[in-house]
Amino acid sequence: MPVIAIIDDDESFRRATTSFVRSLGYGTASYDSAEAFLKSDHISDADCLITDVQMPGMTGIELQDRLIAQGHSLPVIFITAFPEMRARAQALAAGAVGFLAKPFDDHNLISCLNEALARGA
Question: What is the pLDDT of residues 2-23, one digit of tens each?
């Protein structure tokens, strides 16, 4: 069963996203910060990462850069309440699967997850 790591400092959004992803039949692991994810022992267990862009401490974009620098080819889906063209362009240029603005249509997230998991296969 694929495992989706979900990183968002907004607890209610993180819980809702985790619940939704589980309802699709995926395993999940959730974290309240990029740093918490990096300190976990589950980086290599994750098949895909859903992360907020703007978080206290390390941003989602910085997390993506760190993972790439460490040699992890984890597909990343960004979700943000503040869609900025520069951040979107940077994320997609670095290989992000999607960059969704909150609120987003569930079908868009499902499409991104399908693409992310196909890339990882």
Answer: 999 999 999 999 999 999 999 9
For CA atoms 19, 21, 26, 28, the dihedral sign is negative
pLDDT tens per residue across span 51-80 = 999 999 999 999 999 999 999 889 999 999
Out of 3.90.79.10, 3.20.20.70, 3.40.50.10490, 3.40.50.2300, select the CATH number for domain 3-120. Answer: 3.40.50.2300
Note the Cα 45 to chain centre separation in Å.
14
- Residue 34 tokens read as 């990029």
Whole-number pLDDT of residue 89: 93
